[in-house]
Amino acid sequence: xxxxxxxxxxxxxxxxxxxxxxxxxxxxxxxxxxxxxxxxxxxxxxxxxxxxxxxxxxxxxxxxxxxxxxxxxxxxxxxxxxxxxxxxxxxxxxxxxxxxxxxxxxxxxxxxxxxxxxxxxxxxxxxxxxxxxxxxxxxxxxxxxxxxxxxxxxxxxxxxxxxxxxxxxxxxxxxxxxxxxxxxxxxxxxxxxxxxxxxxxxxxxxxxxxxxxxxxxxxxxxxxxxxxxxxxxxxxxxxx
Length: 240
Fold this sequence. Notes:
Layout: H1 12-27, H2 34-41, H3 45-52, H4 55-77, H5 83-92, H6 94-109, H7 115-136, H8 145-160, H9 164-169, H10 177-193, H11 200-219, H12 231-239
Helix pairs in contact: 1-2, 1-4, 1-6, 2-3, 4-6, 4-7, 5-6, 5-10, 6-7, 7-8
């Protein structure tokens, strides 16, 4: 469960919250029911409402708990490579880690009220790691650090929430420690060495973007063969 190593001695409120995290991540907020959550937690539906008031307030409590847990882990285990802490955490407690990631991914995919907060927090943490790496020289400088932070966050989430068909393409029936270990080195090789051997594609992309921005800028104003109209002339013509 998301509570951590002392989860064997939970309060009823914590048991309800943890059960809700599991149901919300696997079924989505709209499909998960208070009754099912109560059954998983070993309490009555009335007790769920007594502690949390409503399903919406229960989700808010789950959001806060998952976000706090994930950020504490990220700040504790972040490293210049980024991937080392992720792999270590996952292999140490794969079920716990996957539950947190699935919950966040579900919230973002459903565009739930907490989606923006999750996305902002994940990208913020990624950006902090990147900027620290750039500052100490362990990472290269990039043209847009914030956009790079988004890309690295998306890649990490996509890896941990990989659909079964992609996992089977590697010869596994489901995502687990074996898949993570299989992906760990190629991921780090991609981050460490890059993919292309020279800058031809980067140069071409820069040129294409520059051309597009130039055309877009031209379209936003009057063209040379279409001078702006004279407001006085237009008013005079209309009055005639």
